[in-house]
Amino acid sequence: MRIGLLTEGGYPYVSGDARLWCDRLVRGLGQHEFDIYALSRSERQEDEGWIQLPPQVSRVRTAPLWTAEDDGVVYGRRARRRFADAYGELAAAVCGGPAATGGSGTAGGSAASDGVEADRFGNALYGLAELARDEGGLVGALRSEGAVRALERACRAPGALRTARTARVPDLLAVAAHIERALRPLSLDWYEDDGLDSVDLCHAAAGGAAALPGLLARHFSGVPLLVTEYGVQLRAHYLASASVGEPPAVRALLAAFHGRLAAEVYRAATLITPGNTHARRWQERCGADRAKLRTVYPGMEASRFAEVGESAEGSRCADPDTLVWVGRIEPAKDLISLLHSFAEIRKEEPKARLRIVGAPADGPEGATYLSHCRALAAQLFPDEAEGVHAVGDNPVSFEEIGGPEVPSLAEAYASGAVIVLSSVIEGFPISLVEAMFCGRATVSTDVGAVVEVIGGTGLVVPPRNPRALAEACVSLLRDPERRERLGAAGRARALELFTVEQNVAAFHGIYLEIVSHSPVRRVVVDDEGEPLPFGVPAEAHVPGRWAETRLMASGRPRWAAGAPVRATVPVPAGEGA
């Protein structure tokens, strides 16, 4: 089977999102052939290069999302009219309101009207893609004054979003620039001439821009689309826009655009694989058909934690008074509440210690938050000394993986009796799964997919509640037998649900299911250019190279498909003897 793997800002680049699970998936499915279609997010990411690719990757095609030079395409009168009509419809659908309504319609509207707007958005999107295929790239047109004027007309039209009506020229320019960036995949040459039209299945590693090439491959060539979201792109956009501080009109219009795009991706996808129930609920609210959803948990490498998890003493080998937090240091992790909680813990268990292991998030915000946490720790816990001649020591330490105290991630988890997660925002809690692989008891806040991952093998408390977090930690510090039972149960659950092997096996079955129900229709032609019955043997659908045949995608005129596939000339009876 030939898979077109679609990524944005990750695989096959050294850094970025979804890099690890994509690499594990490709390496785990060696019987299939993979073509990688990757969108990069920055010049730095491209300069860092690719990871080493396995032999089943037959081709890699990349394109930058972070920049786009004007393609120099000048449209004629008819093409300009086509663009104005398609972009005007797109703008009208966006300004009509968000699609993420869970099937109940927008405020003051109805589910039926929302469906009409969704069709309007999809038709406009494919109209722009067809224009780009027929006439050339869209970069110049999407940046033009005509695009901004179309947005302005849509914002002023009856029935437009109330917030959109307040948009001023700078707001419209910002929205037009964002839409141009998001729609850059429409101008790529990936959809013909042995591109995505020749694969058996498109697998998008995320929604949003990563899934756009899959939408067009389905539209132009009927290639089925599988969408995997371990972090819902629309949710990520909402969180990011809330922290940027954009004007209300810009925020509302971009939310509507991404909502419409998400709804179209979910509508067109053959199957959707969320990484957990939390993501699944988001997808359903954004318009995904429940019948298309199949939860596939992320696959994580359990072997790196095997030595700690399988040790004879289990959690008894750890320091019985030490709590460990592991993760990326940023405000969403709410280390402030953790430090206040630890102050309560120290009142009950004076020997308790807290190790915070992790690096600050990229950007100035992460470094600032780390400095704030260090200052709070110094204020809450002045250096303590056992005697007048002893050196003072703070019970809270900040460390990074690779340092002398924590040379590896597994040793970070092994150093504590209880692993703590204090987040207020969380998707799939990777650190919790790692702690479970290590056989450690956990105390977590009830956010994201935490309860689904823990499944009764750890303690869960409300977020932003330092007292509840402290009480749960103290109860486990005082009960080593309970810690050991919970740690063993957590390890068994993690090995059953969250390994690379289960992830690869799940996608292997999904690939076969999709291709069996949604085969890409291709025809083989003879010397005269006519369809050849039975030109593709049954073995051609079996993984491997039983009967390689050059196929022509259906839906295109045969005179525009390049050289036709030649039929095998039958050998007259007696000549082969």
Automatic annotation (TrEMBL):
SUPFAM superfamilies: UDP-Glycosyltransferase/glycogen phosphorylase. It comes from the Bacteria. Residues 1-290 form the DUF3492 domain. GO terms for molecular function: glycosyltransferase activity. InterPro entries: DUF3492 (IPR022622). This is D-inositol 3-phosphate glycosyltransferase.
